[in-house]
Specification:
By secondary structure, this protein is of the alpha+beta class. The chain is built from nine helices and eight strands. The protein has a three-stranded antiparallel beta sheet with strand order 1-3-2. Strands 4-5-6 form a three-stranded mixed beta sheet. It has a two-stranded antiparallel ribbon with strand order 7-8. β5, α7 and β6 form a beta-alpha-beta unit. The longest helix is centred in the C-terminal third of the chain and has 15 residues.
Amino acid sequence: MKIELLNPYVIKILISLRKEDSISSISKRINLSYGWTNKWINELVKEGILKKKWRGVVLQEKNKNYKRILKFIKENLNDINFYYSILKLLGIEYCFTKTDAVYVWTEGRYNIGRYKEYYPIFIKIKKAEYSIFLAYCKKLGLKISSNKGVFYNVEVLDSFEFVKKNGFLVEPLDDTINFMEDKIYNFEPALEIINEMYNKKLKVKYKEVNYM
């Protein structure tokens, strides 16, 4: 296997790749031009990782080089950031909810109840695409509904509303505010942050008064 193949473009292609896929679909999922995607697809064909089929490709799952790269991804990239970043590469509709929606709307300024040994990531997935999501998790060794480590906590729904915030899909701000108000003792500081950031005029006052 050529060393040139171990680059971010190929890694993204192999993460995003489905068993049978089109070059245009892969290009859209990884946000790379069709020309550059096609170039790296051709390199993967030469290595025997992919096989051309009409206007698309078929993954050769038993290929030794594919197994090596997939093993490298699982062993070296499987951390908290990886769980977040790969969602953009799957080509499915998802959105962050609950604590993760709070984290997104506060732009990382508020996080609670999570640490490295127990880090649920709260997302919604459309029911029609859940089997695709499960296939990616199996392929990449990502955990769902675990009791330890990093894992996805998933709500499977027929449909849901979402907006785009800082490149991520997240439930609307008002829905996130309702969630925080229902759990006010955990999220009162976050509500004050939301007040300051978005001028929502919420009736909340968490900061300690400074008597100095």
